[in-house]
Amino acid sequence: MNAWSREKALQFLKRVLPVSAAIVVAPLALTSWIEPPAPSPSDRQPGALAAPRHAAPSAPPAGKAGASSLEPDRVQTLRSGDTLGKALRQLGFASDQAERAASAASRYVDPRQLRPGMRVAAFLDGAEPARFELTVAGRGELSVERGGEEWLPSWRPYRRELRTRAVHGVLAGSLESSVATAGADPGLAYAMAEVLQWDLDFNRDLQPGDRFDVAFEEVHLEGSYFGVERVLALAYSQSDRKLEVFRFGSDGGFYDAFGRPSEKMFLRAPLPYSRVTSKFSKNRFHPVLKVNRPHYGVDYGAPVGTPVRVTAAGTVLHAGWDGGGGKTVKVRHPNGFVTGYLHLSRFAAGIRAGSRVRQGELIGYVGATGLASGPHLDYRVQRDGSWIDPQSLKSVPSPPLDPVQLADFRAV
Fold this sequence. Notes:
Blueprint: H1 6-16, E1 74-77, H2 84-90, H3 95-105, E2 119-125, E3 128-136, E4 140-147, E5 150-157, E6 160-170, H4 175-182, H5 188-195, E7 211-221, E8 224-237, E9 242-248, E10 253-255, E11 275-278, E12 281-285, E13 292-295, E14 297-301, E15 307-309, E16 314-321, E17 327-332, E18 337-347, E19 356-357, E20 362-366, E21 376-383, E22 386-388, H6 403-411
Antiparallel strand pairs: 1-2, 2-3, 3-4, 4-5, 6-7, 7-8, 8-9, 9-10, 11-14, 12-13, 14-21, 15-20, 16-17, 16-19, 17-18, 18-20, 18-21, 21-22
């Protein structure tokens, strides 16, 4: 689909805004957080998202924004845990020069912005390093040149342009492929999943024939497409309901046509891209113990290392080994709720008893520890000590916009 002009996209917003959206809207002693099933091989639900495969390009096409027309003498690709100083030493910089050069680079590039896969190119003067270059995805290019004992950095930001578009499509296969068929970057599917994560479980709620309308912004660097910036408005229609949300306010929150926030107390699932391999049950055959017993959670099959996010804000009660549950995180939430995340391979940095966590925050990674016959996450919920089927949990909405904000929202 050809790009829409900003005016047409605004007309799209005006067209869908008036239509109302039908939106589905104390420490506890945790016991029996075990008995996981083995994840059974099964096809994912119609329309469910696969693990993300698309990444934005690290730089505009060659010739658009190259910092140098010369071929580098040496190139080093950053790996997980690498620092810029370490990469420079591997390129032949003496230790003291590597630290000075990295320190000079920090004037323009925050070391925390370095990511695995970034390339550092070195240029030599004889046998000595004379300059290095680093491309920072989506931002620009850094060149650091030696001047005597000093290292002199220069920074060239990319020319960045936001363009507003709108696409309309029908779900046929995965959401990712359906978005591509509609004429947009398949990566837009993941932005849509983030927007509707409180109302749709993208592992099981999507059905062929669902319709979607999306207004969004995309980024162009040096005149070339780079990636999706953000969703502005989204309508998702199913046979029995229609969800409509609109971005509003300085915090970039989403609201329905009546000013009710999309954000709820609980996310629908702790893994946005996975499949349900076993449901909540009062009597289920245990694949490891070979006996019938209750299964108080929902199992999500996913590869080892898949990130696990907490479904609601709260305080970590426990992060450690928990018998058959293996490596487990338990989190206390308001109103007597406790959630559990079992069989993790490892915990996220900083996750320990007493830690405060925000909704959607990374707390660990999928594994197969404890009584598990394969990698998966066993997700459990209690309220006041009683087990609740996580898939039947009704989300508690956040407060709506106040009258003044609502008037501004309707005007926008």
